[in-house]
Amino acid sequence: MTDILLVYIPCKSEEQARTIGRHLLSKKLCACINIYPEMDSLYFWPPKSETMEEAHEAVLIAKTSKALYQELEDEVTKIHTYKCPCIMAIPTENINKPYYDWLKGELK
Question: What Pfam family does this protein match (any one) (predicted)?
Fold first, then answer.
């Protein structure tokens, strides 16, 4: 297990994903972002209701360290437009050393 996390953040649009990603990069809270511009989500909303919603979203993946996760989560929560955004850290098992060294060097 490494100290690097992939942080999964669904966004309302590709534009929002790009805005949040650039914000995180500018604060050195992540070293790299990936944007998947098209994803469909299905979920019940409001919570515990019988109403199933469908949303067309974009996914932002931010690569960061465990040490920076809480600060990254706080920043996303401040600027994300969703009332209850998904900000989910996925641990990484193995990373090639040159990429790991580059990534760590880009973080604050």
Answer: CutA1
Q: Which fold, 4-92?
A: Alpha-Beta Plaits (3.30.70)
Domain layout of the chain by residue ranges: 4-92
Q: How far is CA 60 from CA 15, 89, 96, in A?
A: 11, 12, 22
CB distance 103 to 29 below 8 Å = no
CA distance 53 to 36: 20
- Compute CA distances 74 → 29, 33, 69, 85, whole Å: 11, 17, 9, 11
Give pTM, 2 decimals: 0.94
Taking each helix axis from N to C end, the angle separating 69-79 and 14-26, rounded to the nearest 10 degrees, works out to: 140
3-class state of residue 14 by DSSP = helix
pLDDT at 17: 99
